[in-house]
Design goal:
With 487 residues, the protein is α/β, with parallel strands linked by helices. The chain has 15 helices and eleven strands. It has a domain of 252 residues: Alpha-Beta Complex (Amidase signature (AS) enzymes), CATH 3.90.1300.10. Bound molecules: glutamine.
Length: 487
Amino acid sequence: MSELHHIGLAGAAAGLRARRFSSVELAETFLKRIERNQETLNAFISVTRAQALSDAAAADRALAAGDGGALTGVPIAHKDLFCTRGVRTTCGSCILDNFVSPYDATVVAKLKHAGAVMLGKTNMDEFAMGSSNETSYYGTVRNPWDPRLVPGGSSGGSAAAVAARLVPGATATDTGGSIRQPAALCGITGLKPTYGRVSRYGMVAFASSLDQGGVLTVSAADAALMLREMAGFDPNDSTSVEREVPDYVALLGEPIAGLRVGLLKEFFDKGLDPGNERRVREALKVFESLGARLTEVSLPNLPLSVPVYYVVAPAECSSNLARFDGVRYGHRCEQPRDLQDLYRRSRGEGFGAEVKRRIMTGTYVLSAGYYDAYYLKAQRVRQLISADFTRAFASVDVLIGPTTPTPAFAIGAKTADPITMYLNDIYTIGANLAGLPAVSVPCGFVGKLPVGLQIVGPHFSEARLLTAAHAYQRATDWHTQVPEGYA
Ligand code: GLN
């Protein structure tokens, strides 16, 4: 495990600063792995080799001059819904196949400012709608643990890339579980921050009140470093919160003895695979041995989170996606007869089936006569779910449970039944509805497949979550396991 691709994000930053290797060397190592595995995994939509190598050379010059930021020369990848100036941003959709953004998303700009070198843009479910990466216009991403299985979604490209050590860290977004669920299915660490912690400016919108950018890395320590560099207030995003960003890295070593851990009764329900449950319960024992105190708590409204989400998210998506009309940018149909025809055919040709399903559901629940019955009611239940979490956090510091009900499933197994697919996010959606931060860390295997443990905390408790995850990773080595063929 001495090869450069096992170095991790923090290891890469430290090694570069100590001049143990160059940024160009590092970029070459990872670019080669990306290119070699593209056909099998399909984790990338764009690979920006030439730009990456010239950015890496510039990083090496900065390092030689003793300059640079926290990530100078460190290779990363961006989920293909973060706008990148001059580099195509597709959002996994045919409708944006030809879209080149004139500006960088704030997350992209911040990571650039910290010195990170982008190697490419990762594959994803179309407009981040999905749990398996099967809705991407660019084809399914495959799970490095078994190429017959899905990597999870919607950030499946980022997750597969980090799991296969094609890149030490990648950005991702989580609207209902899209960072944590693929992290769990690919055996890596995934952090979804508090709503408002990371700017959404330049992040193509799916459901604006739920979307949040975050990170996928091998370890919690790497996640701490990457998050510290991309979080913070942004005047361009009115929902970003003006609040100091703690030094997550410096706080990693805090002891967790005395941590009050709540076990969510609703998370250990009959839908949970017995193998997953066993691994999660073993992880809880590790937390106990580290001094955590476990108690059971109940969030009675939590079982309503999937139906609430599938009203709120499609409603917001139908409104956000109205901007793709074939007029200003993106796909335009051939020879439109008139404006209606232009809209109808451009959208009809540009959007895939799952996106259309969401737009139709969303338009329906927002329409006059149904708004009160569906949308308003869903918003009320959302408030009840938030209140349940607030009540729970009066007596515990974090909630711990499974990230997903099962390990990775076969490609094609759930595509015919959207409801079964939607149930994948049953344990993750609650945090989005309440705007809470949550992290998923690998906690063992069922057969040969990784299982994720989820830790949810109160608003702006990222440091606590990362510290707890880091303490667990110091006591275990699940996060260091690499899928066969990628060592
Ligand atoms: N799987 C969920 C959905 O399809 C969540 C996706 C996400 O978090 N972007 O909506």
